Amino acid sequence: MINAVLFDLDGTLLDTSEDLGAALNHVLAMNNMAVVEKAIYSSAISDGVAAMLKVGFGDTLHQFDVNQLRQSVLDYYADNLAKHSHCFANIGALLDSLRKQNIKVGIMTNKPEFLTLPLLKQIPELAMIDIVVCGDTLSVAKPHPEPLLLVASKLGVDPSQCMYVGDAERDIIAAKSAKMKSAVAMWGFIPSEQVAKSWNADLYLTNPLDAISHI
Questions:
Q1: Which among 130, 151, 186, 213 is most buried, taking Cβ atoms within 10 Å?
Q2: pLDDT by residue (tens digit) across 69-85?
Q3: Can you give the pTM of this predicted structure?
Q4: Mean pLDDT of 101-126
Q5: Catalytic residue among 8, 19, 167, 171
C-alpha cells in the first residue's frame, strides 16, 4: 500500500527548462559563445549546471573557469527563478487527488535550498507542500537514499509505503536503495525513452494522473 508519494522537482513537478536555459544562454552570450536551443539543453537539466555547461560550451569548456561559469549561471538563475517555470500538465490535478485520498506528499530534489524554497513559494500548486528536502539538506544527495529516507521520516511513513517519482537515473537508484517504489516521469527531462527504460524502474508514467492507479 502506498501512503506517500515523493517527487523530484525539476523535470517531474516543474518545467523549469526555459528559466534554466535562459541562465545558461546568458552566460554563453557573456563569453561570446553561441546560445543553444531548448531541445539541446533540456535533457541535461536533471544532471545539473555542470552538465548544462558541457552542452553549451562543448569541447571549449576546458578553456574556461568552470566554477566561475557555474556561479554565473546560478546567480542569473537566482534572480530569475520563476519567469517561465510552471507545473507540468495535470500535476495540480494529481496533487489534489492525493490530498483527497489522504496520501502524504513530499519533495526531494538535488536543487540547493537557496533556490528551491523561493521557487516553490512562487508556484501556487506547490506552495502548500511542507516537507521538502534539498540537495544540500544533508551531506549526501541522490543517488544516495538518505535524503529520501529523511522525507519519509518527516512524513511519518515507512519507506516501503512510499512511491518516488523522478526523471533521472539517480532518482531510480535512490528510490530502489531506499526500498521505495520507483517511478519515472516520462513527461520530464529524460534523455530518451530508450535510456529511461534501461533504468528498470517499477513504473513508467506517461501522465502524472497515471500515478493514481498505482496507489
A1: 151
A2: 999 999 999 999 999 99
A3: 0.94
A4: 96
A5: 8
Residue 82 CA to residue 120 CA, distance in Å, equals 9
CATH architecture of the domain formed by 4-15+85-214? 3-Layer(aba) Sandwich (3.40)
How open is the CA angle 135-140-144, to the nearest 5 degrees?
100
Catalytic (active site) residue 15: no
The x, y and z cell numbers of residue 173, run together, are 537508484
48 versus 114: the higher-pLDDT residue is 114
Helix axes 17-30, 49-57, angle to 10 degrees: 50
Residue extents of the structural domains in the chain: 4-15+85-214, 17-79
pLDDT digits (tens, 9 = 90+) for 21-68: 999 999 999 999 999 999 999 989 988 899 999 999 999 999 999 999
Question: Are 103 and 215 contacting, i.e. CB atoms less than 8 angstroms apart?
Answer: yes
Has 10 been annotated as catalytic?
Answer: yes
Single out the catalytic residue among 10, 15, 19, 171.
10
Count of Cβ atoms closer than 10 Å to residue 89 Cβ: 12
What is the distance between the alpha carbons of residues 47 and 142, in angstroms, rounded to a whole number? Answer: 11
